[in-house]
Amino acid sequence: MFTHGDSTHGDANELGTVEYDGDYVPPHMQGREVIRAGVMLPFSDRRASVRAQAEGMLAGIELALFDTAGDNFVILPKDTRGSQITTKEMAQELVEQGADLVLGPLFGGNVTATRTVFTEDGAPIVSFSNDSSVVGGGNWLASIAPEAEVAEIIRYASLRGYDQFAFFGPQSGLGLRVERAMQLEVYNNGGLMIGSEFYQSGEDNPNVEAASFAQTVANAVAVGGRVAVLVPERGNRLRRIAPLLAYHGVDTREVKMLGLGSWNDPAIWREPSLKGAWFPSPPAADIADFEARYERQYGRPPSSLAAIAYDATALAIALAADGQLSPDELTNLDGFAGVNGLFRFREDGTAQRSLSIMEIDPSSEDGVKQIRSVATAFDPSAS
Predict the structure, then answer these.
(1) What is the pLDDT of residues 202-235, one digit of tens each?
(2) How many domains does the chain have?
(3) Helix (H) or strand (E) holding 346
(4) DSSP line for 263-316
(5) What is the three-class DSSP state of 74?
(6) Rounded mean pLDDT of 110-133?
(7) 237 and 327, same structural domain?
(8) Dihedral through CA 198, CA 201, CA 207, CA 210, nearest 10?
(9) Stated pTM of the model
């Protein structure tokens, strides 16, 4: 059972504008011990793509309620409008309504604004930002962070005997995050980082950088190194850059190409220079099942973060079944199995994930195949 408080999904511009005296309880839930989950998303952001993402995430949250909620879980949607000022106002309304937890916000700045209202000792915040700088202080990141993807693909490559690694990517915020995460994971897995080459963000033809990088890789291969190369690009840019590396001498028959979740894109799977490449991904069968159920319910494909919102909500519902939700429950070492695979929250607020590993195979029917499934349990000794 769920409710949007006094507002409807279709009237997103007015979400969160009504004041309440005391903890909110829907009329049909009077007399029950209610768990109240605030949902803070930018339903009326000025950008159409963001509005569509927010609506898709709310639909994912609703689907989790249909699938898993009992008769004491209520959601209170609030429209942040993409504004930090509005976010603080909506967070204060949730405090006044007695919210037990918060799902959202979407943007890192709005997460920070929410934390100024919900202190570390207040309701837990399970946000959807991909900004690792806003973790902690009562906030947990439910998104699939690039650091989690890097950890999975580097660990897998190391287990398959690749001991030398190189990075080729843009001089951007994401590129720098991925490269730092790669350096750490290579070290943790006993490998050697032989080089990192950056090119200007937005550069479509980084010939000079590609030539220098290819020579570094070729030198390592020439002396017997088993080399894996990580390229955190996507779409058309990846289709231009991957062949450029091959042109300058990165022999992908000997060098293993690695990517991130953005490589889960049929448009790139026919690129010859990416044949045999590996990338991490949520479990394909579970995602396909979620997408089919979503489309049956709403008549449209889910937004890219709808499954993340579904998992966060299903987790909150499960943990709140005893009538409360505490940080200790969120950081359960056993983790939680979701649509996007196995995950658990660390004490610092980040999420550790087990993702499947996919291999690009142009000769296969789909153009890609799963070569490692999601783990069924975390290693108790790992954190």
Answers:
(1) 888 899 999 999 999 999 999 999 999 999 999 9
(2) 2
(3) none
(4) G--GGGTT-GGGTT-EEEES-HHHHHHHHHHHHHHHSSPPPTTHHHHHHHHHHH
(5) strand
(6) 88
(7) no
(8) 30
(9) 0.85
Helix (H/G/I), strand (E/B), else coil: 141: strand
The total of other beta-carbon atoms located within 10 Å of residue 226's CB is 17
Q: Let me know the angle formed at the C-alpha of 311 by 330 and 15, rounded to the nearest 5 degrees.
A: 95
Residue 200's domain is classified under what CATH number?
A: 3.40.50.2300
120 pLDDT exceeds 80?
no
Separation CA 320–CA 226 (nearest Å): 48
Indicate the SS3 state at residue 368: strand
Which are the contacts of 246, defined by CB distance < 8 A and separation ≥ 6? 252, 273
Instruction: Evaluate whether residue 203 is within a structural domain.
Output: yes
The amino acid sitting at 306 is A
Range of the domain at 304: 12-144+287-349
The answer for 324, left when phi > 0, alpha when psi is -120 to 50, beta otherwise, is beta
User: Which pLDDT score is estimated for 162?
Assistant: 97
pLDDT band at 121 (very low <50, low <70, confident <90, very high): low
Question: What single-letter amino acid sits at 106?
Answer: L
